[in-house]
């Protein structure tokens, strides 16, 4: 898993039917110093997040290990929301 | 998932039989500013797209989470089509 | 699998319910000379580790091949703890 | 999936028994302009290819989605053979 | 799969119980010219190898497609041993 910031959302013109209940967010990936990288990933929101939230996302088959996403063709999902006090000892 | 542009298609000389109903597209991958990278991936079209379309594709086992692709040896599939209004708040 | 150092922990504001028993650590990944890279991964601790420990972590579906993690949406887990005598012949 | 050229083959001294019927090829990976990169992957041939052929290969669990490879410990398989007319609209 | 050289082994202080019968090796990954890269991976030995051996390893769920590794949380396994005559036509 990695830390990222929610920077945009996608309302597609057409999509796979199983994606209809999914909210697709564009996440900007953070580096080890929690600074934004020039890298992004599109992930399904499984916990209720909003633009500018800091989150943790996973990738691969783990992205389908939630009630919402188990039948969706996703390869990335938001699985936690964090704030400035979430990261300890770094 | 990532955003990409459909830039070519592949009509192979020989292929695995389960791939016969598959349309294989060459996708040029976009960066976080939606500018084209020098990177590509070959993906199965699951929603009906055409050359020059902007799309979202997934990778890994998620690429087989659609009716069309469930028995195909694909590791990448197009799962949504987008346009200039699809990306919000970026 | 790769070698990493436990450099921080995450106490998220909200997370997927199956993650509640999970301890999420931030791991700084080591290179082949066991020097720290500017790369990190967030992994579930499955064996009992602490800040500053050197560990081995896995990624992908293998991260769910333990009793603790089998139903969690993790894509990375700590699976061994090592010390300065663990690496031989390098 | 990606495009690659078959540049070598491997006749190993010892291997996992399930790999005995497998032909292992060294593939040089092509970039988006179909020029060779300094990158390779070792893949199982599932369709009958030869040195110098241009092919499409997949990776991950998709590499085991063919009759030949379903029980092999492969993470990459050749799934199509192409020629200079295979790539259209690029 | 990729080609690598066995350059070290790991005797961890603590590990997931299913890893007890596993021999964990540090592999230095080779490039397409069979020269060592500054990259490594830790893999389970499934065929009997030793320090300095040249091997082929796989990654991902394929690493668990052997009798030895099927219940281990590995994401990389050694699946073949090669020597200077193994690579043909390169």
Plain-language structure description:
Five copies of one chain form a homopentamer. Chain A has 90 residues and is mainly β. Chain A has one domain: OB fold (Dihydrolipoamide Acetyltransferase, E2P) (Beta Barrel). Helices cover 0% and strands 48% of the residues of chain A. Chain A has no helices and seven strands. Chain A has strands spanning 2-10, 14-15, 24-30, 36-45, 54-59, 76-82, 87-88. In chain A, strands 1-3-4-6-5 form a five-stranded mixed β-barrel. In chain A, β3 and β4 form a beta hairpin. The radius of gyration of chain A is 13 Å and the shape is globular. The first copy, chain A, starts with a strand and ends with a strand. The model of chain A has no long low-confidence stretch (mean pLDDT 96). Chain A binds chain B through residues 7-16, 18-19, 24, 26, 28, 38-43, 51, 59-61, 63-64, 71-76, and chain B through 1-3, 31-32, 46-48, 56, 58-63, 65-66, 77, 79-83, 85-90.
Supply the CATH superfamily name of chain A.
EutN/Ccml
Percent of residues in beta strands of chain A: over 45%
Model regions low in confidence, pLDDT < 50 over at least 5 residues of chain A? none
CATH class of chain A: Mainly Beta
Average pLDDT over all residues of chain A: 96
Helix content of chain A: under 10%
- Rounded to an integer in angstroms, the radius of gyration calculated over CA atoms of chain A is 13 Å
Number of helices of chain A: 0
Structural class category of chain A: mainly beta
In terms of quaternary structure, the protein is homopentamer
Could you please say which CATH topology of chain A applies here? OB fold (Dihydrolipoamide Acetyltransferase, E2P)
Summarize the helix and strand pattern of chain A as letters.
EEEEEEE
Q: How many domains in all of chain A?
A: 1
The spatial strand order of the largest sheet of chain A comes to 1-3-4-6-5
The biggest chain-chain interface is: A-B, 33 and 29 residues
Give the termini separation of chain A: 16 Å
Shape type of chain A: globular
Largest sheet of chain A: 5 strands, mixed, barrel
